[in-house]
Design brief:
The protein is α+β, with helices and mostly antiparallel strands. It contains three helices and seven strands, in the order H-E-H-E-E-E-E-H-E-E.
């Protein structure tokens, strides 16, 4: 009886862990980002995200393909959330719509630019963000209830 409950508990713990089925960080950068965009690493004014859920969010967004996500002017819209770590798009002075897979690519670009190389499960890292010249941006931070 004790062995059965231990196996059930262990399998429940494995099911709750973030997956590591993450696309490679190698390859071309996002189509919509340019060299003039502004990358911000180590943001301390936001809660720290966790690496494993960032990878889960990237995989989720890339699987979404050309499904558009939108944010109204001067607002942020949460587009992926896992284990308290969220990925949001934020609009500048007008509505901002972007394909889901492009958001995933942007997060990969921010992640690589900021010097992270793997998705190490529960490791917390500082929040990060990339701004386009028009004020639209993608933000990765923790502290969400999801």
């Amino acid at each position: 009886m004790k062995l059965v409950s231990t196996i059930i508990l262990a399998s429940a713990m494995v099911a709750a862990a973030p997956s590591q089925d993450i696309p490679s960080l190698d390859g071309p950068g996002p189509r919509f980002l340019s060299k003039r965009d502004s990358y911000h690493c180590g943001l301390t004014n936001y809660a720290a995200p966790t690496e494993g859920p960032i990878g889960d969010g990237i995989a989720y967004l890339i699987r979404g393909g050309s499904n558009a996500k939108c944010s109204n002017a001067h607002q942020c819209e949460l587009v992926s959330c896992s284990y308290g770590t969220g990925i949001a798009i934020c609009a500048g002075s007008s509505q901002y719509c972007i394909n889901s897979d492009d958001i995933g690519d942007a997060v990969k670009a921010i992640y690589s630019y900021c010097g992270y190389h793997g998705f190490n499960g529960g490791t917390s890292i500082p929040a990060m963000q990339v701004f386009q010249q028009n004020g639209n941006n993608v933000l990765v931070k923790g502290g969400y209830r999801c």
